[in-house]
Amino acid sequence: MKIPTSTYRIQFRNGMTFERAAGLVPYLKQLGISHLYASPIFSATNGSTHGYDVTDANEFDPVLGGRDGFLKMSDTLREHGLGLILDIVPNHMAASLENPWWRDVVEHGQQSRYARYFDIDWSRRLTLPFLGDTFEEVLAKGELSVRVDPQTGKPALAYYDSYYPLTPSSYEGRAGEVLAISKPEEIVALHDRQPWRLMSWRDAPRELSYRRFFEITGLVGLRVEDPEVFEAAHRTVLDLVRESRVDGLRIDHVDGLADPKGYLERLRAAVGPDIYVVVEKILGEGELLPEDWPISGTTGYEFITALGNVLVDGSGHEALTVAYHAVAGAAPDPLDELREAKLLMANNNFEGEVSTLLKLALKLHEGDAGDVSTGSGEMQDALRELLVAFPVYRTYGTAEGMPAEGKALLDEVVRRVRTGPHAPDEQALGFLHRLLAGETGGNSDEALLFRIRFQQLTGPLMAKSLEDTTFFRNHRLLAMNEVGSEADPAPASVEHFHEEMTIRRQRQPDALSATSTHDTKRGEDARARLYTISEAPDHWAASVDRWREINSQAVAHLSGGAAPEPAVEWMLYQALAGVWPADLATDDRDGLKALEERFLQYVEKALREAKQRTTWSDPNEDYEGAVRAYASRLLSPDNQAFLEDFRTTLEPFLRTGLVNGITQTLVKLVAPGVPDIYQGSERLDLSLVDPDNRREPDFATLAADLAPEGALSTTEEDWRTGRLKQQVIARVLRLRREQPDLFRSGEYLALHPEGKRAANLLSFARRTEEAALVLIAPRLVLGAFRQGEERLSKRWDETVLPLPPALRSRSYRDLFTGRRFDPSERLSIAWAFVDHPFALLVST
Question: Pick from 288, 394, 632, 715: most CB atoms within 10 A?
Fold first, then answer.
């Protein structure tokens, strides 16, 4: 298997085509990239901005240039020696009439050849939750009619521009008569003869008849556990593998599948041993990827979490919590907040999924030899408590049983529920425990379905409750509210980082190491900047108090309370600090307006995801309008008192964030794993949550500014524009291409600086018998910039790096300056940092 030395993620659509991507290949080659990592490229719904709403898994999207465009891009990659990794979506497709498989199912119901391709409950009519109101209300308003579908020429039930095909048996031989139907009662009768029923989108959480992706009703689950469905959904991908046009695959949302391991084994058998495969999989704290999965690892969200241990000041954890509560008021314990969010999701957004599990459990319980007195209420409570208590995405039980680690996790979860403050009925809990463990119910269809559906639900429940609810409620340190993080992370420490990297090198040395993706809550350099707040919690809190006072007249007083409330004010100032462009002047009206447009989009999403005073399904316009007005006030050119204060206060945080960004970048490039560069993040990535993080970067400037090999330029402008970061990436990626074994299999050695500034350094080495490198990078340097020091290189006297015997008796050169080092037992940090405050020493 050819393991990438680095990947570069490109987001197709929104103007990015195969032709344009082909034009970027020379730049990617110069940057040092080994593999282009492409977002989904197969046909998606009209106007799709991301491609995960697939309509045809075997057709190259014409919007991108179709097959011809893909082949030309593929040829260009080959000519330059770059590989290609495709992001594929086996879990779901678009529940759209643009999807020919789905359209056929709508038209023919259970008689469709594709009826078993999708996860549909055929014990009832297929639900189509795409009406703006109830069927009765829509019909009464005259919004439903029987018309000819302009695409097929067949009779259809029309709702605005959507034409739902009538099943042939409902009109065969009398199409003209059916098309003449206009009376409401006749439309009702015709609708009742269909294998589907139209309903309001608001009823989907309770009544949906198909498995969806998270809570998105427009995405229907695929049954790729069925060999026929697998073959049909992967036909073109497998052809590309056989034609040597694809070198790797990224599997989207692997935890959504009925049997992830079984799917991956089938995929591996189909693609052979040489294709690089990684999965999108969120690992909880301490959770390890199953060793028997035939893949190279994850897409790297856990790596982002690990970086927090390096760049966050763990000693300020409690002080920052106290400071936040002083502004926001008493806040729930983060784990209690997560529980509340999970209950909200289970009782509302996933009500239908929970109800399906409950019905299955009650049916299976009737045949159980245990206690028969358990009622529906007790079973529902026990089921809900188990779902809410799950600390990770899921377990991986199959018809063959539960793996040992999954059984151990299940036992522990049940123990916590049983002994916790919300313990449900013991008989109901015990039955569910036995059922999930495979100790009752056997391998009956109902028992297997219960186990699969339970495991498919815990992931979405966790994701929507933590990432898309709790992280938008708890604003203490926004940088830690990231995909892959915990609700209540332990205080950060370098020691924990070293432990994580040692395990990473052992368990998944070929996994992707991400710092920004299309799904992260903010760009990597915004996160790096916000980490610095942990170094000065009291100073930050005092600044927030001052800014709140300056802008107090912009707070609206509504019946539901202040808007924004203090906790949201804290969030707004922190989010603004993260996204503020390094070169933005306070009197730049155009720049402020451009930032305002992006910021307001974020504000709306943040408020609605929190699900407290407004939601996506029921927006509170008065509240949202008041908070938007406040946010706009912050960026008004007429609010110079605030802007000047904010920009001046931000300066040391900004400068420290730039240093953090270089350290973060170096760690990603050198630590175990394959560094993944998200489009544009080779320069400063100060983006907010999607869709902001999916904007296309200025590729022309990126290519023009990539300096040829030579002395590293470290002027102030190079730091602030991100050119320095781009240069660093190019240097190290070239080294990775030259010495792949050092980075892939090299031993990971934690190093421990000593002396006056030891706590302000991160250092580790990678070593094989033939080669070695030593990384020395700064951390927690906000104090230096707050004291007005310009050059960090002058602060390292009386600080040394002891070297273990395995690293001694070697000559090294600094990758960025070419300076030679011949250390014996220790290395002077002041000497290593003469030119700039970081060093990567490579053995010669």
Answer: 394
- What gap in Å lies between CA 70 and CA 41, rounded to an integer? 9
Residue 400 DSSP one-character state = T
CA distance 106 to 357: 25
pLDDT in tens, 106-127: 999 999 999 999 999 999 999 9
Q: What is the pLDDT of residues 376-395, one digit of tens each?
A: 999 999 999 999 999 999 99
pLDDT tens-digit series, residues 296-343: 999 999 999 999 999 999 999 999 999 999 999 988 899 999 999 999
Question: Residue 395, Cβ neighbours under 10 Å: how many?
Answer: 21
Tell me the two tokens of residue 174: 């009398």
Q: Which structural domains are found in the chain, ordered by start?
A: 7-91+224-299 (3.20.20.80), 100-218 (3.30.1590.10), 334-470 (no CATH), 739-844 (2.60.40)
Residue linked to tokens 């539901």: 560
> How confident is the model at residue 372, as a pLDDT?
65
Would you call 621 exposed, middle or buried from its count of C-beta atoms within 10 A (0-12, 13-18, 19+)? exposed
Strands 196-200 and 826-828, bridge-based pairing: unpaired
Q: What is the DSSP string of 318-368?
A: HHHHHHHHHHH-S---HHHHHHHHHHHIIIIITHHHHHHHHHHHHHHHHT-
Strands (E), 107-224: 126-131, 144-148, 155-159, 162-165, 196-200, 212-213, 216-221
Amino acid at 470: T
Instruction: Answer yes or no: are the C-beta atoms of 20 and 719 closer than 8 Å.
Output: no
DSSP labels for 490-528?
A: PPP-HHHHHHHHHHHHHH-TTSEE-S--TT-SS-HHHHH
Residues 162-175 pLDDT 10s: 999 999 999 988 98
